[in-house]
Design a protein that fits this description.
With 421 residues, the chain is of the alpha+beta class. The protein has four domains: 70 residues, no CATH class; 122 residues, no CATH class; 128 residues, no CATH class; 59 residues, no CATH class. Helix content is 34%, strand content 18%. A hairpin with a 2-residue loop joins β2 and β3. α1 runs parallel beside α4 and α14 packs across α15.
Length: 421
């Protein structure tokens, strides 16, 4: 089996399928966006498996060539079309959790249309005049007052992608009917079936065969890719971290000799850990994290991590220096100032305090203060709010004091030899 890199796979695929009747856009071969979810890239109705070897992701060259040739041979009759109807609008909160994220090409195209219909509706009206008329299908078969010409023009140059193909390049309109070539619509139907089959297989625990939630919550990394383990099976397979490296330097020989992948992630407590996370300000180990949680802490905004990740504050305070000094890494200071501004700052409209949380347009640190540029989208208002560094230090200390009330007091180095690096 000849293994090739994602970029080489993308090159081979593009060369072989260049004459395809389908508008292909197989960038997923490089980005592997569903790699964690089910371990494949699905192009049309063909699933191409992703392989992992020595920490690098590859493809089997034969899989790439076979798939590309299938699309090079694909036959499409532009005159043989089927009608496509826009499904009724549904709020995300009204959907069954099992339906969210399901492979559904009709819903996907409809979501693009509803987004533009709502944007057009709100752009042309004052906030107080907004209503749900944009959700209703109009005379042209599109939602609200959206016209076919406006919809296509809005998507000009955008790479709207379903199954690694571009459906809007094949979609046409006749009267109030939206049309797609029959062969292409059938291909997209098969894409739904193939994708849902992969998801169903990947959400099944490899040990007890229990079925997990949609998404990749039960997927955990391994040397050969991702495996699926439910929380009980993960708990029985991997150790729970008890803080035995608390106070140890990340660069120490002690850390390098202890594998993180023998532990459960200390944040989500569901997946196998992949790395030792550490405080970049003080260099101390915080604990083992799975790849997903580690990426979230390192690459998401500090604001998002603190507000949306359960246990985030306690994890950050696994750094002994942060806990003892009642502080957090520097990048979290602006986030706490922002949380304070969002909770307290409102503009005045018609002698009344606006009830909406302002939008943070920009923040910069200058002259000893964080300056937040704020806007209220509902009332077209803009203003600025300063939070001084001294005020921010107080906010950080108060946040840590509150969070640390549930953190066990660290043992002294003299009584705990495991803390010696």
């Amino acid at each position: 089996m000849a293994q090739i890199s994602p970029r080489l796979a993308r090159t081979y695929f593009a060369e072989i399928s260049a004459a395809s009747a389908l508008p292909l856009d197989p960038d997923d071969l490089v980005h592997m966006v569903r790699r964690r979810q089910h371990g494949h890239v699905v192009i049309g109705d063909i699933a191409i498996r992703c392989y992992k070897n020595r920490s690098k992701w590859t493809y089997d060259e034969r899989d790439i060539r076979r798939a590309a040739q299938a699309f090079a041979d694909f036959r499409l009759d532009p005159g043989d079309v089927v009608e496509f109807q826009v499904p009724p609008y549904r709020e995300r909160d009204d959907q069954d959790p099992e339906e969210r994220g399901r492979a559904d090409w009709r819903e996907k195209i409809a979501s693009w249309m509803y987004w533009h219909a709502r944007h057009r509706h709100q752009e042309q009206r004052h906030y107080e005049d907004w209503n749900d008329s944009w959700q209703r299908i109009g005379a042209d078969g599109l939602p609200g007052d959206l016209t076919w010409e406006e919809f296509i023009a809005a998507h000009n140059g955008r790479r709207q992608n379903i199954a690694n193909t571009r459906p809007l390049e094949l979609m046409t309109r006749s009267g109030d009917s939206l049309l797609l070539p029959r062969a292409y619509a059938e291909l997209l139907d098969r894409w739904e079936q193939v994708t849902e089959g992969l998801v169903a297989q990947a959400r099944t625990c490899g040990r007890c065969r229990a079925q997990g939630p949609r998404g990749d919550a039960w997927r955990t990394p391994s040397p050969l890719g991702y495996v699926t383990l439910c929380p009980p099976c993960s708990g029985a397979t991997f150790q729970r971290y008890t803080g035995h490296l608390r106070g140890v330097l990340y660069e120490s020989a002690r850390t390098r000799s202890t594998r993180a992948d023998g532990y459960l992630c200390r944040l989500c407590s569901e997946g196998r850990a992949a790395v030792w996370d550490h405080c970049h300000d003080h260099g101390l180990v915080r604990g083992p994290l799975c790849g997903s949680c580690n990426t979230y802490e390192g690459k998401s905004t500090a604001h998002s991590f603190l507000q949306n990740k359960e246990g985030a504050a306690l994890h950050l305070l696994e750094c002994r220096v942060c806990l003892e000094r009642r502080t957090l890494p520097a990048r979290y200071h602006a986030a706490l100032a922002r949380m304070h501004v969002e909770a307290t700052e409102r503009h005045i409209i018609r002698s009344r305090r606006c009830r909406h949380v302002p939008w943070i347009e920009r923040v910069e640190l200058a002259h000893g203060a964080y300056r937040f540029e704020l806007s209220c989208w509902w009332h077209k208002a803009t203003w600025a709010k300063d939070v001084t560094v001294a005020e921010t230090v107080t906010l950080v200390r108060e946040f840590v004091e509150q969070a640390s009330t549930v953190v066990p007091a660290p043992r002294s180095p003299a009584s705990d030899t495991t803390l010696q690096a």
